Amino acid sequence: APRRALDDEMLEQIEELLIASDMGVDTAMRVTAAMAQGRMGTRVSAQDLRALMAQEIAAIMENVAKPLPIYNKRPQVVLVVGVNGSGKTTTIGKLASQFKAAGKSVVIAAGDTFRAAAVEQLQVWGDRAGVPVLTAPEGSDPASLAFDAMTRAEADGADLLMIDTAGRLQNRADLMEELSKIVRVIRKKDPEAPHNTLLVLDATTGQNALNQVEIFQKLSDVSGLVMTKLDGTAKGGVLVALADKFGLPIHAIGVGEQIDDLQPFDPEDFAAALTGVET
């Protein structure tokens, strides 16, 4: 393969490529600078550059690739937040199914009480997985549903309670109040709950995902991320930007409709796929 001396022009091209992958300017500059470190003027092939790029990206992603932590706590309460359309409800269904398959008992609370479709969707997942889904009348108080679900999970001796929440960002103050009320109510039962707050993000929204993390960090105590829709038009670079900027654990990625399409996040595979390196 032809080799060229690594120079500023090449680095600029690499940077543009990374920005085009949805990585954002700051992170693209950081990756490019890391690639250039001590290598200016050395002769490299396109394949070398891709491998270098993959290596630097994997290094950033390594720190955030962590499965959802499971605590010795019953019920472990997992609050799930995210905007409508991010794949939140589906993610809860898939996680519940996977935990059930791993021998854990799960209860789901359909806390997005204003969206009948979200409640129905969870009921379908629950039926399929054999997981009870607690619902409340449309538009009723999600916090009292969360309290009832907590009571039920305790009575059942359930390992996990997963709580779906509304994702209406049009009225942020209302949503903040709704989420903090859910937290206040479940803390009456367990002062340490929720034990995890998962933010579900749609990878196809690109750089907008960064804004969503900032917003939801103000609304709730986000402890980790799930990135959905990485099978479609998503360029994927936004994950690198998220890892670089926030350092929040990425617990899983969604790459399709099936239960098994919610997968643990693997930094090497991801970096190779993003840069086109043959693995």
From TrEMBL:
<dbReference type="InterPro" id="IPR004390">
    <property type="entry name" value="SR_rcpt_FtsY"/>
</dbReference>
<dbReference type="InterPro" id="IPR042101">
    <property type="entry name" value="SRP54_N_sf"/>
</dbReference>
<dbReference type="InterPro" id="IPR027417">
    <property type="entry name" value="P-loop_NTPase"/>
</dbReference>
<dbReference type="Pfam" id="PF02881">
    <property type="entry name" value="SRP54_N"/>
</dbReference>
<dbReference type="GO" id="GO:0005047">
    <property type="term" value="F:signal recognition particle binding"/>
</dbReference>
<dbReference type="GO" id="GO:0005737">
    <property type="term" value="C:cytoplasm"/>
</dbReference>
<dbReference type="GO" id="GO:0003924">
    <property type="term" value="F:GTPase activity"/>
</dbReference>
<keyword id="KW-0675">Receptor</keyword>
<keyword id="KW-0472">Membrane</keyword>
<dbReference type="Pfam" id="PF00448">
    <property type="entry name" value="SRP54"/>
</dbReference>
<dbReference type="GO" id="GO:0005886">
    <property type="term" value="C:plasma membrane"/>
</dbReference>
<keyword id="KW-1003">Cell membrane</keyword>
<dbReference type="GO" id="GO:0005525">
    <property type="term" value="F:GTP binding"/>
</dbReference>
<dbReference type="InterPro" id="IPR003593">
    <property type="entry name" value="AAA+_ATPase"/>
</dbReference>
<comment type="similarity">
    <text>Belongs to the GTP-binding SRP family.</text>
</comment>
<dbReference type="InterPro" id="IPR013822">
    <property type="entry name" value="Signal_recog_particl_SRP54_hlx"/>
</dbReference>
<feature type="domain" description="SRP54-type proteins GTP-binding">
    <location>
        <begin position="75"/>
        <end position="276"/>
    </location>
</feature>
<dbReference type="InterPro" id="IPR036225">
    <property type="entry name" value="SRP/SRP_N"/>
</dbReference>
<keyword id="KW-0342">GTP-binding</keyword>
<keyword id="KW-0547">Nucleotide-binding</keyword>
<keyword id="KW-0963">Cytoplasm</keyword>
<dbReference type="GO" id="GO:0006614">
    <property type="term" value="P:SRP-dependent cotranslational protein targeting to membrane"/>
</dbReference>
<dbReference type="InterPro" id="IPR000897">
    <property type="entry name" value="SRP54_GTPase_dom"/>
</dbReference>
<feature type="domain" description="AAA+ ATPase">
    <location>
        <begin position="74"/>
        <end position="221"/>
    </location>
</feature>
<keyword id="KW-0378">Hydrolase</keyword>
<protein>
    <submittedName>
        <fullName>Signal recognition particle-docking protein FtsY</fullName>
    </submittedName>
</protein>
